[in-house]
Specification:
The structure holds two protein chains of two kinds. In chain A, helix 1 links the parallel strand 2 (33-39) and strand 3 (68-72). Chain A is of the alpha/beta class. Chain A has two helices and three strands. In chain A, 28% of the residues lie in helices and 16% in strands. Chain A has a three-stranded parallel beta sheet with strand order 1-2-3, covered by helices on one side. Chain A has helices spanning 49-59, 89-107, and strands spanning 9-13, 33-39, 68-72. Chain B is globular and about 50 Å long. The longest helix of chain B is centred in the first third of the chain and has 22 residues, at 76-97. In chain B, the strands form two sheets. Chain B has a three-stranded parallel beta sheet with strand order 3-4-5. In chain B, strands 1-2 form a two-stranded antiparallel sheet. Chain B has helices spanning 14-26, 32-40, 69-73, 76-97, 114-119, 160-167, 201-221, 233-236, 240-248, 284-290, and strands at 120-135, 141-154, 176-179, 226-231, 266-271. By secondary structure, chain B is α/β, with parallel strands linked by helices. At the A-B interface, strand 1, strand 2, strand 3 and helix 2 of A face helix 1, helix 4, strand 5 and helix 10 of B.
């Protein structure tokens, strides 16, 4: 499937076990990039830096680190029933800041 | 362009909308028209969250409610000011965290795909039931989609005007978003079609694909170099249970997405599995491998942009 779309990158949701493991990333044809949505936009807890870096390391077993990017998992507006209502602006900012923090540590 | 950088999905800062609402009240904007509008079709399935400032931005409505552009004209300048305020706040936040790709927080949109219905003639006013109800951030559930009752024609640019507006508010790289054409069909199936308008879904997808191609070209002409296309059906369909839902209505979960795009534009697809976690326990990306997802039927069900 990954090679059928004429796009530059894929935003992939990898925030929960429901997403499965990273092994399909080995099928991602160059030069396409995978944007890992590890920071959940549905669960209010802020993910830890170490936990997120471990997840990036796991993904890097299947695809070059240079072809990986980071992002939140999804939009901040839509929420599943179990999560109640949407995030506050403050929580959104803290989630985004965590994305940047980990990305800085991994790629700089 | 993306390597080692940050990219992110559309952010919709809920709080800023409420703040905008409060500020609007402080600015003395008359909400009488809007309140009357809400009261006139008070439904627990309304797609418009009450009290959110971007209600003003939505030029059309769902669930068979009348389009109310004229009712909103009086508040238009106020609405735009509120949107601008919310967007400046969203931009400031994104610049503060140095996220590296700026959006307007989707503050000018009713939703990630609803703005297609709002800006394009041909959708509604009749609606059809969704096979996949979706829960909205305000706690309501959207159960219906607008039926395609006329030939689709954009009343205004889908995204390029929003891009240009945002371009005046930030120096950062801007990410634009568009939904795939498939969103106008997948959630309901062929029930969305009026045979007198589009004889089959291929005709509908052809028309929507043309509209999206023109919009992408328009975005590029406005200077947009980064576009995310939100493709929900493709990820949703990888869940075997969801495959059964579409098979039950007589569809075949094969797919293809084709993209014609400007050479200098970075395009990403967000394979969004939707908020359908409950009852669908399969791991979606793992499911790809066993799903026999092949481009056997070009654009039959999914998008061709």
């Amino acid at each position: 499937m990954f090679d059928q779309l004429d796009v530059d990158g894929y935003f992939l949701e990898y925030d929960t076990p429901r997403a499965g493991d990273f092994s399909p990333l080995r099928h991602l044809p160059k030069p396409r990039k995978a944007v890992l949505g590890l920071v959940s936009t549905k669960v209010p807890e802020i993910e830890t830096v170490d936990g997120l870096k471990r997840r990036v390391d796991e993904a890097a077993k299947f695809i070059e680190l240079e072809r990986l990017c980071r992002s939140p998992q999804c939009g901040f507006a839509s929420v599943p029933a179990r999560a109640g209502r949407g995030f506050s602006m403050d929580l959104t900012e803290r989630k985004l800041a965590r994305v940047v923090e980990v990305a800085d540590q991994v790629w700089n | 362009m993306l390597a080692g950088c940050y990219a992110f999905d559309p952010v919709v800062p809920i709080d800023s909308r409420w703040i905008g609402w409060i500020r609007a009240a402080q600015m003395g904007i008359d909400f009488a028209h809007q309140t009357a509008l809400e009261d006139s079709h008070g439904s627990d399935e309304t797609a418009l969250p009450r009290g959110a400032c971007w209600q003003f931005a939505a030029p059309g409505t769902l669930d068979g409610r009348p389009r109310a552009i004229h009712q909103r004209e009086n508040a238009k300048s106020g609405a735009e000011r509120i949107e601008d305020e919310c967007i400046r706040e969203a931009v400031a936040m994104q610049e503060r965290v140095e996220i590296g790709a700026i959006t307007d927080g989707e503050n000018r949109k009713r939703g990630w795909r609803e703005f297609l219905y709002d800006k394009c003639d041909g959708f509604g006013p009749e609606t059809v039931e969704r096979a996949f109800p979706i829960r909205l951030h305000d706690g309501t559930t959207a159960r219906r989609e607008p039926k395609v009752m006329g030939k689709l024609k954009l009343r205004e640019a889908l995204s390029s005007n929003d891009f240009s507006s945002l371009n005046t508010m930030t120096r950062g790289p801007i990410k634009a978003n568009l939904p795939t054409p498939s969103v106008a069909h997948f959630f309901t199936g062929d029930a969305v079609l009026d045979p007198a308008v589009y004889g089959n879904r291929e005709e509908l997808m052809d028309d929507l694909a043309r509209i999206m191609r023109e919009e992408i070209a328009d975005l590029a002409a406005h200077g947009c170099t980064y576009l995310q296309i939100d493709e929900v059906p493709l990820a949703v369909i990888c869940d075997p249970k969801n495959m059964e839902v579409v098979r039950a209505r007589g569809d075949d979960p094969d797919e293809l997405i084709d993209l014609d795009r400007p050479a200098n534009m970075t395009i990403c697809v967000h394979l969004c599995r939707g908020n359908y976690a409950q009852g669908h326990g399969r791991r979606w990306l793992r499911a790809y491998r066993g799903a026999d997802v092949r481009p056997a039927r070009r654009g039959r069900l999914f998008s061709r942009i």
